[in-house]
Amino acid sequence: MRGARKRLCSALVVAYGLFSLYAAYTVFLRPRRPAAPRPPHRDRRGSRDHVALGNEEWNPWEGDEKNELAASQQRYEANLKMIKNARSHLEQTSLRVQIWGKAAIGLYLWQHIFGGHLQPADVTAQWREGSQKAGKTYFSFITGPSVVPGYFSVDAENVVLVLNGREKAKISYATQWLHYAQTLIHTHKIQHVAVVLLGNEQCNNEWIQPYLKRHGGFVNLLFVTYDYALVNEEDIFQWPLGVATYRSFPFVEPSWSMLHDPRSYLCNFLGTVYKNSSRETLMEILKQDGFDKLCWIAAREQWQPQETNESFKNYQDALLQSDLTLCPVGINTECYRIYEACSYGSLPVIEDVMTPGDCGNSSIYHSAPLQLLKTTGAPFIFIKNWKELPAILEKEKQMSLQEKIQRRKKLIEWYRNFKAWVRQKFINTLENSFLPSDKG
């Protein structure tokens, strides 16, 4: 009995298989006869003409079948293209880099130089992140108070750590991050580390040197602000100071009016005037020649780290409404004001003198100070003494609006190209250092 059931089941399976093969042959392999032309359209109110098919077979669903076949082919080709693009993307992306933004200068890197976006957009958010592909590298960026050592996901074997080393308290915090990165190196969680450092304004950055690979440490590359004397273009590179992102200075998109409208003031200076500084000399010269009536001047005796909404708006308006922005030296020659003026097309007039400290010596480094800006052809006005300013302002008074428009365009174009150049150099340096060499 059991054997009979087995034979019956086998027979049914064989029969089903033969029927399936016949159906497949009928649908896919058997040649179709050409379909007869469809009858001409008739008004539904009239009688229908008889269509003589003769020996021809008319398939009323043939048009639908062709449309479905064409749609299926398009879907197949679209999926194939998507797979090829994904495979190409994976092949081209050879490096993954995670940037830990633990200093405000990281926002200049990501939003101004990389042109990247962050989610959420709220600058007070505890956690913000973004990502983009550039060159052979996929970059991700994280920042915010919630980014704490050991309490976030390390998503790449290559890390760029953005740190503040301007003063002792900041250095102490920065070293905690370096020790965390060092632990990840030792436990093989990451392979390479680069540091973007907001350096000390007098270039006292000795504390970072033991962490560099050339001194037995683990940091492959260092990008540091100001004219640091140890910049060698091999593993230590100069980095632009940028705009004051810690005071929420925005990314500015040039507008038609910014380029073409006449501006109300010859120049501006809104800032702190320190005792016995060249800034006092600047104020005296402006008052003596009456230029303070033609310029937007707002001096204060004490530096304020935070802006009020009103003071910040006044500062932005001054940049937008002035043809020139005066940039006297502070603790260092390089200042945020230079880059902020470029954002609004207001030409920086820079006091081109070395400040005290350990930054590049102009007798050795012929471009110092501001050698990064000078070597990239910054179209600024550089002066050695503010006594040169009256002649500059007199010349400014004689310039036509068209000449000023062309100058603004040149300045904004240079700044855009400068940021693009810094970005590409940064990417190339990381890829050349982090990617395995093809040499045997």
TrEMBL record:
The keyword NADP does not apply. Residues 97-240 form the RXYLT1 N-terminal domain. The gene is Rxylt1. The keyword Transmembrane helix does not apply. GO terms for cellular component: Golgi apparatus. GO terms for biological process: protein O-linked glycosylation via mannose. It comes from the Eukaryota. Residues 33-57 are annotated as: Disordered. This is RXLT1 xylosyltransferase. GO terms for molecular function: ribitol beta-1,4-xylosyltransferase activity. It comes from Calonectris borealis. Residues 33-45 have a biased composition (Basic residues). Keywords: Transferase. Residues 246-435 form the RXYLT1 C-terminal domain.
